[in-house]
Amino acid sequence: EAEVAQSPRYKITEKSQAVAFWCDPISGHATLYWYRQILGQGPELLVQFQDESVVDDSQLPKDRFSAERLKGVDSTLKIQPAELGDSAMYLCASSLEGGYGYTFGSGTRLTVV
Amino acid sequence: GESVGLHLPTLSVQEGDNSIINCAYSNSASDYFIWYKQESGKGPQFIIDIRSNMDKRQGQRVTVLLNKTVKHLSLQIAATQPGDSAVYFCAENIKSGGSQGNLIFGKGTKLSVKP
Questions:
Q1: pLDDT averaged over consecutive 10-residue blocks of chain A (113 residues)?
Q2: CB B10 within 8 A of CB B112
């Protein structure tokens, strides 16, 4: 069964340091999403890509967060500098056109100390 | 505020009983809904979906009901098993402009199954 791959699974970083997460979507899925999930809450969209283009980054804190999907396949989400409040699960998902076939990866658990 | 919410934050059922998890949504333009199961430390796992042109869809031991009149979604799990214990999220796909749409999640319901 096809999966969305994410790495690392866990990351501990000190505040003010830079951190990056990687995602490889399901082959053929043109749409890629990054979500942040705070413990006890539902995932919240950070950024959405259609191929290599950003179609929605309205909830991305652009002063410290950046995301790219240069070749329209895998994607990287970066935080610099990390803050204590960034501790959360970062989830990547991909989907077919129209939002169907939404599939999530296992996520990266970030702890900022 | 969030357009998708859940009526009950926690639900405890006896093994073998049926479970019903409810969800309210507020966006009439939503055309697609998904239920996810999330176990501790893992990403959301797809359970079942339904498009807005349907009012019921069945899977293996699960049924999703959609009532567009009152903007209500429910997940029914038959013969609930200990392995069903998890947090369940409903999500609605909202399209805006030319966007493919993205999922808006509620806060989740924690299902606990007692043996």
A1: 92 98 94 92 93 93 96 95 97 83 92 97
A2: yes
